[in-house]
């Protein structure tokens, strides 16, 4: 369902306010942005409207290169995500890649069951549902669906990091210039990022322990 007219008008009006305030603070801000970008971070996150990376990280346009999709899933055969990763690592030469899941994730919650969500979403969430089956014992030991969804979101971040490890441009950047990978969970109710427990690997890659 698209934006209502009122919502669209708010977006356009909001843009004018943003542009005016940014220009007042720095008259050269947009002219500088127009010269190019050199972000140090590639952020792979969920399309959820409550987790806008630039806002929650208190960053500015140009600071973070972004790819977002349903439940921040990385599929090895996803051309869209792969092209973003390749561009970020090969051409922008980002220094870090962040995969960020979050609490109250609709995709993670849906993946706790096998309800028919439609052909596209069923296919998209299949790896997440398979991850649920793989960790069935651990997930069933948790108290409620909220806890299960958060844990599944964490496991999904770890799985996405595994997919990134195998991406040829990422592997090359890790070995040649020390690119690092990081997993995070954004707690919507607290408004805070939680960095997953990390252990330094010999190849310079940072990941949550398995």
Which fold name corresponds to the CATH topology of the largest domain?
Beta-carbonic Anhydrase, Chain A
**Strand order in the largest sheet:** 2-1-3-4-5
The portion of residues assigned to helices is 40-55%
For this structure, what is the CATH homologous superfamily of the largest domain?
A: Carbonic anhydrase
Number of strands: 7
H/E order of the elements? HHEHEHEHHHHHHEEEE
Which shape, going by the Cα principal axes?
Answer: globular
Overall CATH class of the largest domain: Alpha Beta
- End-to-end distance, in Å? 39 Å
Low-confidence stretches: 199-210
| Total helical segments | 10
Specify Rg, calculated over alpha carbons: 19 Å
Q: pLDDT average, as an integer?
A: 92
Structural class: alpha/beta
Question: How does CATH name the architecture of the largest domain?
Answer: 3-Layer(aba) Sandwich
State the main characteristics:
alpha/beta, Beta-carbonic Anhydrase, Chain A, five-stranded mixed sheet, two-stranded antiparallel ribbon, 17% strand, disordered C terminus
């Amino acid at each position: 369902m698209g934006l209502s007219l009122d919502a669209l008008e708010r977006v356009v009006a909001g843009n004018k306010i943003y542009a005016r305030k940014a220009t007042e603070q720095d008259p050269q801000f947009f002219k500088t942005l127009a010269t190019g970008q050199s972000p140090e971070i590639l952020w792979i996150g969920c399309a959820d409207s409550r987790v806008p990376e630039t806002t929650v990280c208190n960053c500015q346009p140009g600071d973070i290169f972004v790819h977002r999709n349903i439940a921040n899933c990385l599929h090895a055969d996803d051309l869209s995500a792969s092209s973003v990763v390749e561009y970020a690592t090969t051409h922008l030469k980002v220094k870090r890649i962040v995969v960020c899941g979050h609490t109250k994730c609709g995709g993670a919650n849906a993946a706790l069951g096998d309800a028919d969500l439609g052909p596209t979403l069923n296919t998209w969430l299949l790896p997440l549902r398979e991850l649920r089956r793989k960790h069935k014992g651990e997930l069933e030991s948790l108290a409620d669906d909220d806890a299960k969804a958060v844990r599944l979101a964490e496991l999904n971040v770890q799985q996405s990091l595994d997919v990134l490890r195998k991406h040829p441009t990422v592997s090359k950047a890790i070995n040649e210039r020390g690119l690092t990978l990081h997993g995070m969970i954004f707690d919507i109710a607290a408004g805070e990022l939680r960095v997953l427990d990390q252990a330094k690997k010999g190849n310079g890659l940072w990941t949550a322990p398995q």
